[in-house]
Design brief:
Layout: H1 23-90, H2 99-114, H3 134-165, H4 174-179, E1 184-188, H5 192-197, H6 206-213, E2 216-217, H7 227-231, E3 235-238, H8 241-255, H9 282-297, H10 300-308, H11 310-316, H12 328-364
Parallel strand pairs: 1-2, 1-3
Length: 365
């Protein structure tokens, strides 16, 4: 942890001993620094409205992009439903429903198919007469391909974004623990996290250590008792990363509960030391170093870690999150497939009508 900030005062800073400094030079440097500060402050207030305007434009651009995506979705559904309704209204058969009723039904069909629902029974009134027509089969095939591209494009991003934001831990830093006085903080007695938190003494985060010191935990058998309060948001445990993940994974394996996340803290991240007494011989130290080297080169450390946190990784489904779940450039392939397919479907439908019209004319002659 960084040391606490030094107390500042209005008393002028004294020149260190042994430094031969002219008064005029010091005055010039002081005035130069003051003028620089004034200019920077003036520049900040001058550019502040432009910064606000820039941020507003960026938020508006992001909102417009998402609006374009959703408009493209609904437009594609409307175009596909309109093409199917046109096929239904033009094909010659009796007992037709109203055009508006058929169009609403097809809108509902394509909307439901976008989330994985099928078109329904073939003997329904809206599919019975057009199911075997090549034009509708073409529209259906193109639409299903477009849905496949939609799913592969944005479903993973939405799921990972949901996991990143909806399953976001309540406390992610010591500052969050400082703000919430009601949450209990615990750690294991005589453990590395406890020794590391002891370094918070005489810092701004000392209350965190004092609260953890009053709620010491001890390693026992079975599932630790602190897991239920932590999952309910009433407590926070500060422990070793791999050890905590192992307990969460074992709890998930036994009970199916998976509402606890492990967040690494910045302080003491690299505070790992191995000490030995001076009485140890060099031969023993070298032999010990060779053993550590073989352990690391053989990948045993990674294997042990993978086995210990396997169920935690299964529980959390760790994935890379995305802050842009809906991007028009990612979906352009699906819209291209849909647009080209519907255009070809309409051309095919016109050719189908011309063929039937010519065949009927030959029969009349």
């Amino acid at each position: 942890m960084a040391p606490p900030p030094e107390q500042t005062s209005n008393k002028p800073k004294e020149t260190p001993l042994g430094e031969n400094r002219q008064p005029e030079t010091a005055a010039k440097e002081g005035s130069f620094g003051f003028m620089d500060a004034v200019m920077e402050l003036k520049k900040f207030f001058t550019d502040y409205p432009s910064l606000l305007e820039l941020g507003k434009k960026l938020r508006q651009a992001q909102g417009d992009e998402r609006l374009y995506v959703w408009l493209s979705f609904f437009s594609s559904i409307a175009i596909a439903a309109g093409a199917t309704g046109l096929i239904y209204s033009i094909l010659p058969f009796s007992d037709k429903k109203k055009k508006a009723e058929a169009l609403l039904r097809y809108l509902w069909l394509f909307l439901m198919s976008l989330i994985g629902k099928d078109f329904g029974a073939k003997n329904s009134w809206y599919l019975k007469q057009i199911w075997n027509t090549p034009s509708f089969r073409f529209v259906q095939g193109v639409w299903l391909v477009a849905c496949l591209v939609f799913v592969n494009s944005y479903q993973g991003s939405i799921i990972s974004t949901y996991a990143a934001f909806k399953m976001k831990p309540k406390y992610e830093s010591l500052e969050d623990l400082m703000k919430d006085k009601s949450v209990e903080i615990g750690t294991y007695a005589n453990s590395f996290p406890y020794l590391c938190m002891a370094r918070l003494t005489n810092t701004t985060f000392e209350p965190v250590f004092l609260r953890a010191k009053e709620n010491l935990q001890y390693i026992g058998e079975g599932i630790p008792p602190w897991m239920d309060p932590v999952e309910q948001g009433k407590a926070v445990i500060v422990g070793e990363t791999g050890h905590t993940k192992y307990f969460i994974g074992e709890r998930f394996k036994l009970t199916g509960k998976c509402g606890i996340r492990v967040i690494p803290l910045d302080f003491c991240a690299a505070y790992i030391a191995l000490g030995s007494r001076n009485e140890l011989s060099n031969a023993f130290v070298n032999h010990f170093n060779i053993g550590i080297q073989r352990f690391n080169e053989g990948g045993l450390s990674s294997l042990q870690k993978a086995e210990s946190v396997l169920f935690y990784e299964i529980c959390t489904q760790t994935e890379s999150s995305s802050i842009h779940p809906l991007d028009l450039t990612d979906l352009i392939g699906a819209f291209t497939v849909l647009g080209v397919g519907l255009t070809l479907s309409i051309i095919y439908f016109v050719l189908e009508l011309i063929t039937k019209w010519s065949q009927g004319r030959k029969l009349k002659m």
